[in-house]
Amino acid sequence: MTALPVSAVGVKVPASTANLGSGFDALGMALSLHDTVSVQVVDGPPGSAQVRVEGEGAGSIPTDERHLVVRVLHKTLAELGFPAPALRLHCENSIPHARGLGSSAAAIVAGVAAGFGLAGIDLRDKGNADRALDVAAAREGHADNAAASLLGGVVVAWQECGRFRAVRMRPHPDVSPVVLVPQAQSSTDATRGLLPERVPHADAAFAAGRAALAVHAVTRAPELLLAATDDRLHQDYREAAWPDTIALVRQLREAGVAAAVSGAGPTVLALPVGGGLPAGIAPNGFRVLHLPVDDAGVRITAQA
Q: What is the 3-state secondary structure (H, E, C) of 198-222?
């Protein structure tokens, strides 16, 4: 193993929304809400870390080597052939935790990107980006959120021959995401436990058609988003976990607004024509955020 060629990097990573209706574990979109991480190699015991957290998660997440970004960063460096150094991190978090906006995927992507940055490996190279995606998605178990945060734009993600892959697409300029974020938090693992092992063939066929339509709608024909974001595959099964979320999705859809659960919830993703919600919809307990699509994905800068 050799010493790291870069001693300090900054990382800016966007939030993400996944599924876009029926595209379960396959479709994702990056959103203009960001976490930033400054990483510096310092003197100290190998593998140790000092972490300062501001914003989301401050006071409730580890501030040492147990921090998710640090754990992923050290693992990434090991896979790249570098030892785990002592680190100092400053995290400024804007992505709400456990709300279905990809906060854990963003932290994982931040750790992977920081590891590649410290190793002096350029993620603008497609081969390097593919490798980084596989490292990040392997930690999550699926690639939709991680690919969106890494690549930006809209992504289609899949697994092939044991590796995670994704393609990035540019969204139509009229796609104007609005997220409605409740105070309640949700565990992805817990809500996945509500899903059945099997679904009716008719529902699977419905989901396949709507997921395919979503790709066309979000990139070429946003007027089809209402139909494209309909779902029978997973959302209704999760209603017991967050009935207010499902009720808001139905209310928006009845008003003609394309809406779906964002990732594992409980945030709601809306894609209204013109970017505004209809008059009369005032969701109690939900914070409304207008978040344009982030087209750049993760940004890495070398620091002095």
A: CCCHHHHHHHHHHHHHHHHHHHCCH
